[in-house]
Amino acid sequence: MGLNRTDEFRADAVHIALTSGLTRKQVADDLGVGVSTLNKWITLHRDTDVVSKEDLDLARENERLRREVRLLKEEREILKRPPSSLRA
User: Fold this and answer.
1) Which of 55, 53, 16, 50 lies closest to 33 in space, CA to CA?
2) Which positions are tagged coiled coil (predicted)?
3) Among residues 45, 67, 40, which one has the least CA distance to residue 55?
4) What is the pLDDT of residues 43-68, one digit of tens each?
């Protein structure tokens, strides 16, 4: 049988999952809960004041910037290759 977590613990877990930039699996593992449990808590608390609109906006912007940086790094690695390695 699973542990009953306090409402405060759940709220903190949701806040971390939505604003930390970590994957939900990483957050769930760090907190010792299942990913499906964490996802359930996020669904239940998404529209509450656990996470402010500003926090969510910042988290979305951080994720967008991480994707952009990842793409730019991949492009840079391609451009660093010698021309002969680009031919098929």
Assistant:
1) 16
2) 55-82
3) 45
4) 887 666 666 778 778 878 888 888 99
